[in-house]
Amino acid sequence: MMDQERLAFLALHFAPGIGSRLLKQLISYCGSAQQVFATPKGKLLKIPGIGLVTANSIKSQQLFSLAEKEILKAEKENVELLFYTDKSFPARLKSIEDAPVVIYTKGNINLNFSKTVGIVGTRQATAYGKNLVESIVEDLLPHQTPIISGLAYGIDIHAHKHALKVGLPTIGVLGSGIDVIYPAAHNETAKKMMNQGGLITENSFGAKPDAHNFPARNRIIAGLCDALIVIEAAEKGGALITAEIANSYNKDVFAVPGNIGQTFSAGCNFLIKTNKANLFTSVKDLEYIMNWRLESDSASPSIAAIDYSTISNDEKKVIEQLLTKETPIMIDQLSIDSHIPLGILSSLLLSLEFAGLVISLPGKRYGLVNRNYR
Question: How far apart are CA 236 and CA 85, in angstroms?
């Protein structure tokens, strides 16, 4: 039997005029997606952002028919639909204001890795740019960092292909439906990614790769990655848009410098010059800025060997909470789970970080040093 709450959620997603922010607001006011449809029109109109046209569209039974067909199609195509209310919905996306509320995923895909890197750049990649991609991907291998990109020509597809070659998971974010691979020339690579990563999109089945979908696609790339590396980019284009979005999400952006006067160095050099990107010369730059360490080169004590007599009771409480987490946790959630106010928790985490017991990760997430998060 089809889950009625999920059916209602997807039906609401298909309602004209309801974007991700408004959908979240409706569920917040009404309590659930099913309850939104059960709410009288008069009460819906009192919710900020809901006008008569939108209220009428919510009452359309056609929405449920569309949603049911979409769910059946997903089951047939081995596509997983993730709603932002699901525990498995990527935590990094959930934390951004304009995140999609529904995503389609296909493949052997984990969207909650402890570390993620996005690689973007020009569609007219040079031999220099491709060599850089290969070097970066290979140097990221010890971190087992999934490579996220947009399956486009040039830098994007080269990053996906080389990740597959060296054995790193790689995730392609589409500006079309998950059943519409664009460009079609990359269909074979997309198939190979099914066993070593996968595909993700917010667009419904059959959606064409229309121009307006790509800036929206870029925000998902920016939202999913901890660090974004720009390799060869002109002064205007998708790579620069992705970098701007990543900056707005407080993500760490890196740019590979290029020769002055070269078209596809202009964008990277501009990002560095305007302090919108860190200078990237090697993965060591990224490791330093991101505070990424490998177990093999960490001198910190193992968690099993902690001397609890050297830390306070509140610090012990934080450690015990982190021990129960399989992935790094956002500070807000840690505050809720540990019942420690944010202001006090921030100070405790800093103290534990100095003691070499806790590691700070992008997106205000925290984990235990020496724990091999996957």
Answer: 36
* DSSP per residue, 325-350: -SS-EEHHHHHHHHT--HHHHHHHHH
Q: Which tokens sit at 313?
A: 């009771």
DSSP string, 109-170: --S--S--EEEEE-SS--HHHHHHHHHHHHHHGGGTPPEEE---TTHHHHHHHHHHHHT--E
Rg of the chain over CA atoms, in angstroms? 22
DSSP-derived secondary structure letter, 194: T
Q: What is the dihedral of CA 271, 277, 282, 283, to 10 degrees?
A: -150
CA distance from start to end of the chain: 33
pTM for this predicted structure: 0.78
- 96-139 pLDDT per residue, tens: 888 899 999 999 988 888 899 999 999 999 999 999 999 999 99
Domains of the chain: 1-76 (1.10.150.20), 108-290 (3.40.50.450), 297-368 (1.10.10.10)
Q: How far is Cα 182 from Cα 205, in angstroms, rounded to an integer? A: 13
Structure tokens at 151: 């399956």
Contact assessment for residue 187 and residue 172, using Cβ atoms and an 8 Å cutoff: no
